[in-house]
Amino acid sequence: MWAEREKNMSEDQSTVVVCVEDEPEMIDLIRLILKQKGFEVHGAEGGVQGLAMIQERKPDLVLLDLMMPDMDGWEVYQQLKADDDTKDIPVIVVTAKAQDIDRMLGLHIAKVDDYVPKPFTPQELLDSVDKVLSAAEVKP
Questions:
Q1: What are the tens digits of pLDDT across the range 11-38?
Q2: Partners of 43 in the β-ladder
Q3: Phi first, then psi: what are they for 47, rounded to 5°?
Q4: How much is the pTM?
Q5: CA 98 to chain centroid
Q6: Is residue 8 situated within a structural domain?
Q7: Is 3 inside any structural domain?
Q8: Considering the chain, what percentage of its residues have pLDDT values greater than 90?
Q9: Domains in the chain: how many in total?
Q10: Which domain holds residue 47?
Q11: Position 37 in a domain
Q12: Residue 54 has pLDDT above 90, yes or no
C-alpha cells in the first residue's frame, strides 16, 4: 500500500497534512515520521492557528490534538465540519486524552476518522494515516 501511495505522490504533488498541536516537539516528531513517507507536513501551534491554516491550505488530512489552551480540538473539529470547504477533510485525533470514553466519543459520536492515543509508535501513526487516506480515496 505504501509503495502505491508513494508512487502516486511522486507522480502528483505530495499529500498535505496539517498537524494541529500545542507542543512544537510533537509537531516535529510527527513531521519527521510522515516526511519519511513523502508527506508534506505543516504544523500549527494551537487551535486558532490550526483552523486558519486548514482553511488556507485545504490539506488532504488533519491530525488534531484535543487539549490545547487557545481553542480545544473538539471546537476546531466542529468548525471544520460546519464549513462546506473543509467538511470532507479526514481528521485523525492524536491525543493524550485516551480513555475509552474519549475514544468512543471521538469515533462514534463526533465521527472522527480515527483516534491515535499518545504516546504512539511511528508505525501506529503511519497505519492510522494509511487507513484513513485509503478510506478517503474510496469515497465518491
A1: 457 899 999 999 999 999 999 999 999 9
A2: 19
A3: -65, -40
A4: 0.85
A5: 16
A6: no
A7: no
A8: 66
A9: 1
A10: 19-134
A11: yes
A12: yes
